[in-house]
Design brief:
The protein has 619 residues and is an alpha/beta fold. The chain has helices at residues 20-32, 43-49, 69-77, 98-104, 117-134, 161-171, 188-191, 211-225, 246-256, 268-389, 396-430, 443-453, 455-458, 478-498, 544-547, 567-577, 602-607, and strands at 12-16, 36-40, 57-61, 87-91, 109-112, 148-152, 175-179, 199-203, 234-239, 260-263, 438-442, 462-468, 473-477, 513-523, 529-537, 581-586, 592-599. Strands 2-1-3-4-5 form a 5-stranded parallel sheet, sandwiched between helices.
C-alpha cells in the first residue's frame, strides 16, 4: 500500500515486519476487522514514514534487521510528536527478560504472535481508544524528526571501533554522518535545518587532529548560536587508553566545552547508551522550546485577535458615532434650511405688512379728505337744485338736468370711495403687527377679509362657497387665518386657472371653478373639541407622490418664477404652533382637499373672553 493511502484515517496502523509471510497474515487479520494497515520492513523505514504521516498505532516485531522493536519504541518516546503513539510488540522469541526489555524501552504491550487473533484485535482497539481520548492536538508544522549525530574521527582501516559505533547508533534509529577532517566543518553545522546535528562525537585519541581545539571551536560556535534561542548541541569526547594525567586532561576538556567524556574501553554498546542519554536530553529540550514557541505564538495570535476585535469594535463605534453625527448634522441642516426659509418668508411678510400698512395709511388720508368734501359738494348741489326749482328761467330745464346728472355722479363717487375705504380697512386688518399673538378672532370676518384681498385673483368665474357651522370665535394667532387660509385658497385658485384649456374664448376668457370653505367642530377620542377648516377646490387635485413632499420647504409644482415653495411649509409650521394638524388629500369629486384642525377652547368661544394659549404654544 502506498504511504499516502488512508493517511487521514484514524485507524491507520503501521506494521513493522521483515517477514513477508508474517506481514501478509497479520495484515489480512487486521484488515478483516476494519483497520487500515501500512507495512514497512524495518525500524529505520518506519521512522522515515513518520515524516509524512503519523499512524494511530505501531505494531512492530521485536527481532528486526538493524534496529529492533525496543529501539524503535525508544525512538518514538524521545520525540514529543510521537511520544503518545501506542506501540505493540509482537514476537515469537521466548528469551528470558525479552518482554521486560521491550516494555522498559517504551512499548505499551508485548504479545506473542501465537496469541489468539481476537485477543490481539481487542488489545489494539483498547490502545487506540486510550490514545484517541488522551492524544494532544498536533500543529501542522510539528513533525517527527530523527536525531542526527556526527562522528568526528579519522577514516582509518585500523579504527574498528568507529564503524561498530556508527552501526550501533544507526540501529538505535539515529542519522549518523562521519567527518574525518574537522577542518571541513563550518557554523552551518548548528543552524542549517537540513544538516544540524544534535550530538557531535569527537575522537580525542587520534593523532590526525587536536580534539581539544575542535571542542573549543564547536563550543564557540554553539555559544554564539545560543543568542538566537536555539538549544545547543551536545559534545561527547571519546578518549583512548588510560592516561597518567587523566584528571588534568578531563578538566581541560570540560573547560573547552565538552558535555561528556567517555573511555573507549566501555565498548560500543555502552558508548551508544551514553550518546543516547545526551541525545534524549537534547531532543526533549527541543520539544520544550518548540512547545514554548508555539505557546507564545498562540498568545500573540490571541492578543492580535483581541486587538483586532477591539479595533473592529472601535471602528464600528466610531462609524456608528459618525453616522449619528451625520444624521444629526443632516437634521440640523434641514432645520436650518427650514428656519432660513421661514425667516425669509417672515421678513417678506413683515415688509409686506409694513408696506401695506403704509400704503393704507397714505390712501386713507386723502380718502378722508375727499369723503369730507364730497358731502360738502353734495349739500351744495342740493341747494343749487332747490334754487333752480323755484326759478322760471327758460333755461331752467337744461340746468336742472345737468345738476341731476352731477348729483348722480356724486352718488357713484360715494360708492367707489366707500369701496376704497373698505379695501383700506381690510389691508390694515391683514397687516396688523400683533398677528403673532394669540387672541380671540372673529372667523367669518377674517375669512371675508381674505376673500376681499383675493377678489382680483378669483375673478368672476371662480365661485367661493361658504359653510360656517363652527362658532364665530376662535382663540388663535391671526396668521392662522391671514396666511394659512389665504395661501391655501390662493393655491386653489392657481390650480383651477392652470387646469383651464388654452382657448377660453367661448367663455369670454373667464376661468370657471369652485372653492368650498367649510368650518365645524369635531370631538376627538380624548374629549377635546377641535376647530376644523376644510377647503376643497375643483382643480386637478394633487398626485400621491406630490402629497408626500408638499409641505417641504422650497418644494413647488408651479413653473419657475411662479412660486417660492415656502407657502405651505410656513402654513404647516403655523398649524404646528397651534398644536394642530394640516392634512392634504383629494376630494371625492376630484380636486384638492386641505383639512386644518386646531384645538378649540369652549370657554373662550362661549364667553367671548381670551383663554390661555394651548400648552407649549409659541408666543
Amino acid at each position: 500500500m502506498p504511504p499516502a493511502e488512508h493517511e487521514d484515517h484514524p485507524d491507520t496502523l503501521l506494521l513493522v515486519e521483515d517477514s513477508d509471510t508474517q506481514a501478509l497474515r497479520i495484515r489480512r487479520m487486521l484488515e478483516g476487522h476494519g483497520f487500515h494497515v501500512h507495512r514497512v520492513a524495518s525500524g529505520e523505514e518506519a521512522l522515515d514514514t513518520l515524516d509524512a504521516r503519523l499512524p494511530g498505532l505501531v505494531i512492530a516485531d521485536y527481532h528486526l534487521p538493524g534496529m529492533n522493536g525496543g529501539q524503535l519504541a525508544r525512538q518514538l518516546r524521545m520525540n514529543a510528536v510521537t511520544r503518545t503513539i501506542p506501540v505493540l510488540i509482537l514476537t515469537e522469541g521466548i528469551e528470558p527478560g525479552l518482554e521486560r526489555e521491550g516494555l522498559e524501552s517504551g512499548a505499551d504491550a508485548y504479545i506473542p504472535k501465537s496469541s489468539d487473533p481476537a485477543l490481539i484485535v481487542l488489545r489494539i482497539r483498547a490502545l487506540l481508544r486510550e490514545h484517541a481520548a488522551h492524544a494532544p492536538p498536533l500543529l501542522p508544522e510539528r513533525m517527527f524528526r530523527r536525531a542526527r549525530i556526527m562522528v568526528i574521527a579519522p577514516a582509518s582501516p585500523r579504527q574498528q571501533a568507529v564503524p561498530e559505533l556508527i552501526g550501533q547508533l544507526r540501529r538505535d534509529g539515529h542519522i549518523v554522518t562521519l567527518c574525518p577532517d574537522p577542518a571541513q566543518l563550518d557554523p552551518t553545522l548548528l543552524h542549517d535545518p537540513e544538516h544540524v546535528s544534535d550530538c557531535v562525537v569527537i575522537d580525542l585519541a587520534c593523532r590526525e587532529f587536536d580534539g581539544l581545539e575542535v571542542c573549543r571551536v564547536l563550543d564557540e560556535w554553539r555559544q554564539a548560536d545560543l543568542l538566537s534561542g536555539n538549544v545547543p548541541l551536545r559534545l561527547l569526547g571519546v578518549d583512548g587508553a588510560p592516561r597518567a594525567d587523566a584528571r588534568e586532561f578531563a578538566a581541560r576538556m570540560f573547560e573547552a566545552g565538552i558535555d561528556d567524556l567517555v573511555s573507549r574501553d566501555v565498548g560500543p554498546a555502552a558508548l551508544a547508551l551514553r550518546i543516547r542519554v545526551l541525545v534524549r536530553r537534547k531532543l526533549l529540550q527541543d520539544d520544550v522550546r518548540r512547545i514554548e514557541v508555539e505557546r507564545q505564538a498562540r498568545e500573540i495570535a490571541v492578543k492580535s485577535a483581541r486587538a483586532e476585535a477591539a479595533a473592529i469594535a472601535s471602528k464600528a463605534s466610531l462609524a456608528e458615532a459618525l453616522e449619528q453625527a451625520n444624521r444629526e448634522l443632516a437634521d440640523a441642516n434641514r432645520k436650518l434650511i427650514e428656519t432660513q426659509g421661514k425667516l425669509v418668508q417672515t421678513a417678506k411678510m413683515a415688509s409686506l405688512g409694513e408696506l401695506v400698512a403704509g400704503i393704507a395709511h397714505e390712501i386713507n388720508n386723502p380718502l378722508a379728505f375727499i369723503l369730507a368734501h364730497k358731502d360738502t359738494v353734495a349739500r351744495g348741489l342740493a341747494q343749487v337744485m332747490d334754487m333752480e326749482a323755484a326759478c322760471t328761467d327758460p333755461d331752467h330745464a337744461a340746468r336742472e338736468a345737468v345738476l341731476t346728472k352731477c348729483r348722480d355722479r356724486v352718488g357713484s363717487m360715494n360708492m367707489g370711495l366707500r369701496r376704497i375705504q373698505n379695501l383700506v380697512l381690510n389691508l390694515r386688518k391683514f397687516s396688523r403687527l400683533d398677528e403673532g399673538l394669540f387672541q380671540l378672532i372673529d372667523v367669518p370676518e377674517a375669512l371675508e377679509t381674505v376673500m376681499a384681498l383675493l377678489t382680483q385673483k378669483l375673478g368672476s368665474g371662480i365661485v367661493v362657497r361658504r359653510q360656517y357651522e363652527a362658532p364665530d370665535r376662535l382663540y388663535c394667532q391671526a396668521a392662522l387665518l391671514n396666511q394659512v387660509i389665504m395661501n391655501i385658497i390662493s393655491n386653489a385658485a392657481d390650480a383651477i386657472l392652470a387646469a383651464q384649456p388654452d382657448d377660453m374664448s367661448g367663455r369670454g376668457g373667464i376661468a370657471e371653478g369652485e372653492i368650498s370653505i367649510h368650518t365645524f367642530l369635531a370631538h376627538n377620542a380624548g374629549g377635546q373639541d377641535t376647530y376644523v377648516f376644510v377647503i376643497t377646490d375643483t382643480g386637478p387635485g394633487i398626485a400621491p407622490a406630490v402629497q408626500e413632499r408638499i409641505f417641504e420647504p422650497f418644494f413647488t409644482t408651479k413653473p419657475v418664477g411662479a412660486g417660492t415653495g415656502l407657502g405651505l411649509a410656513i402654513a404647516y409650521s403655523v398649524v404646528q404652533a397651534h398644536h394642530g394638524s394640516l392634512q392634504v388629500g383629494n376630494a371625492p369629486g376630484g380636486g384638492a382637499r386641505f383639512t386644518i384642525s386646531v384645538p378649540w377652547n369652549a370657554g373662550a368661544g362661549a364667553e367671548g373672553q381670551p383663554a390661555p394659549p394651548p400648552s407649549g404654544s409659541m408666543r
